[in-house]
Structures
1.
Amino acid sequence: MQSSHLPIALIQHRDAGDVASNLDATASAVATAAAAGARLVVLAELHTGPYFCQTEDLATFDRAEPIPGPSSERLGEIARAHGVVLVGSLFERRAPGLYHNTAVVYEADGRLAGYYRKMHIPDDPGYYEKYYFTPGDTGFVPIDTSVGRLGVLVCWDQWYPEAARIMALSGAELLIYPTAIGWDPQDTPDEQARQREAWITVQRGHAVANNLPVIACNRCGHEPDPSGQSPGAQFWGSSFITGPQGEFLASAGTDDPETLQVTLDRGRTEAVRRQWPFLRDRRIDAYAPILKRYIDPH
């Protein structure tokens, strides 16, 4: 029987320059978190290298790896060495010309428990992900592990309440978002503040609407545009963990690598759902229009 309390950690990430250095930094941070009691550790999006989607470059596809492959096997070794369930994020080479942004989940014994291919793919200045990533085909299916059923999504997915809801309806006990998001350094301070607040608020909303804890693990630090055509990206950190009412349990700063550790009380989800029975009161008979792209006025 699972304990009612789950010690978790997230590792806010800054690019260390190359795959080996990033994985070494990950191994060190996971070791520290595990020594402090963590049983579940979450890493940021695409944490084995720079956020390469600032530009479109054919040579960048050489960064992709199969799963299993060298980076995924190293993540499994890290999980096994420290006895933690580990959520990582990789640039997956599925086949020639077919690539995904893929979250992987490793059990505490090092075996692959499951994976999730990012479903929503952005295409914005500095975030040219549609050039690199094929939309995922795994669906919104939680991954069963020894620490519970994990609703793993990735970055741009965090703006979509449908994804969080389907994970919740499928029995997810946590919503987990490995993330790489930041400011355009040319934006005004007011615009930067609005964007960051919107990112935090929408995910707290998923926690509230689904009565589930949320773990959002972001990158931090400035990364230059490889093409030199823009000032690059300033990732805003601000990783956080909430409880099932959207209450902050821990939050990180904007600038530096940081590890957050909290112990979740599993019983709170059921207690909150008894008070706020949103799943009971859903009008599933009236939701068919949600499947339309847009509801045009008559």
2.
Amino acid sequence: MKNRLFIIIFFCFNMFVFSKPKKDLAENPLIKTVVFFGGTFDSQFPIIKMNQTLFLSFDDISGEENFYYYKIIHCNFDWSESKLLKSEYLDGNDNNLIDNIESSYGTLQRYTNYKLSLPNNDVGFKVSGNYLLEILDSDDNVILKRKFLILDEKVSVDLNVYPSQKSDRFYTHQNVQFVINTSRYKIRNPNNDIKVIVLQNDQWDNSKTILKPQFIEKNRLLYRYNEESEFEGGNEYLFFDTKDLRSTNQNISFVRKESIYQHFLFTDNPRNNLNYLSFPDINGNFIPNSTLGENPNNESDYSIVYFSLAKQFEIDNSKIYIYGKFNNYELTDDNEMIYNPSLETFEGILILKQGFYNYKYVIVKNNMILKNQISGSFFQTENSYTVLVYKKGFEDLYDNLIGVGRTNSFELKY
């Protein structure tokens, strides 16, 4: 009896000492230039069908070749973890080493580029829906997270973008109305089985969730809501181009070379009180690239980019951030701006790989993100919209992604 008790105590002690809880370090400042895409959309929006491939690339600027692993988690439509076992949604095993790596070549900033494709020889997917990809280091710390989607297309979606139907929002908002065509796939109870997510510019932080169709016809579910599917139009994104590290251009004031290159952007002014001005952008995305070298993955260099925003409003307890796809639209200490009273500007510094970048300035006040208080909001602004259709009936164990629709407000209806 004493021996059995000793074994149990010893086993519990070892479990306590040697089991390490997984830490979330998803804002690791050494992980840069995360590019994750797949499917046919002309953007960094990772959505694929079962027979397609996802591609992930990222850099570690520590200068070391570290070991990184990946894990895959299946989620419900609202990104809570589903109840499926891994064997029910994965064909093979995850928790595999990322072994496609390249060290930087001919760059001032040393880094290592990591690439991963999914599915691969180790793991595939069995079901559709929402997935979360986690990248972990050798100590089991999560250093990077990204969402992706797998589509099992059963229905088609037709959508249009209109100015707001409300008079006080007509000049500032856009309204998304759409129809889900179910002629090829019968849905027993649309009011309970169907859930819809609407995205503007592939951004999850202001997505709209619609739980029921407004009208049901024979083979069509109609969604013609007003506020439920309405978004601020915003403004076109600001941009800069560092593909040629040594030269200035229309948005770069001057370039300096020290241990690495430094790019000083012209000071930006708030645009909320200006008239709308149309110019092309890529809706917050970025495109890593270089005018020199054959392989931008490991031959493009990094530079320090200096941002400045003129103060034309009163300072309160709000925080201002540089906002864009370059850091997955996350608001962290890395991209927060600091007020410089001597120049009366807000200033920010980012280490970014060569390429073409979109960005804007956003305010966080009372835990609310005010995306367009600095840039202004206009109904004419070009935005992309995506409608995701999920189905979970009483016979289903998870939220199936059965339809996707996509359009652009270039085709604004009146």
